[in-house]
Amino acid sequence: MKRLILITLILSISMLIVAQECKDVIYPTKGKSIIFDCCIEKVQDGNWVHFTKNDSAAVIEAVSIIKAGLTLNLIPLEGATHGNALYKGHDYIYYTEKYERAKKKKTAGMLVSGLGLGEVLIGLAYNSMSSSGSSRILMIMGIVTFNVGMPLAISGGVEASNNMKAMAKVKNNTSLSFGTTNHGIGLVLNF
């Protein structure tokens, strides 16, 4: 029995040591979470990092990495625009339609969540009046309904917010200014 415990302990410790071999860190581009404890294989095209983590390989765009304790700032892409992440070249009407759909999705999620919360409250009230199993079923169905509605409401809200920002970007993207042109100095329309 002692030998079995000792062998199990040694195997567990060796698996932990092997699992912690790679301590590389990747700092992806804006909007993505930092990746810790991965193995960086190679960096291509300035800032595309090939790595493995938990026996799965992936490629991600990064601004900086830490490999073997050495911090490396990666080369940014030429012509990269950091402020236009939401604006993808569509017109104002496109983002308005997407905004309206996202608002409907958010409202539907809130209604479904409210329905689920109501089912739970009715189930609790019914449970205090009688001891039948139907009140538990009503509460479980309410919890499930609430848990279906909340992600819809949250994702709809985030989507609506992003489309509102893109609408503002499209609206502010057109300007008339005084500047240089191919034919000399004059009015310049930027759109």
Search tags:
191 residues, alpha+beta, 2 domains, 5-stranded antiparallel beta sheet, flat
What does the model show?
By secondary structure, the protein is α+β, with helices and mostly antiparallel strands. 50% of the residues lie in helices and 27% in strands. Strands 1, 2, 3, 4 and 5 form a five-stranded antiparallel beta sheet that branches. Strands 6-7 form a two-stranded antiparallel sheet. α2 (92-129) runs antiparallel to α3 (134-172). Residues 79-85 have low confidence and may be disordered.
Number of domains: 2
Radius of gyration: 27 Å
N- to C-terminal distance: 78 Å
Poorly predicted ranges: 79-85
Would you list the SSEs in sequence order as H and E? HEEEEEHHEE
Please state roughly what percent of the residues sit in beta strands, choosing from under 5%, 5-15%, 15-25%, 25-35%, 35-45% or over 45%: 25-35%
- Major beta sheet, specifics? 5 strands, antiparallel
Helical/strand content category: alpha+beta
Query: What is the helical fraction, as a range of percent?
Result: 40-55%
Number of distinct beta strands: 7
Mean pLDDT score, rounded? Answer: 80
The rough form would be described as: flat
The number of helical elements comes to 3
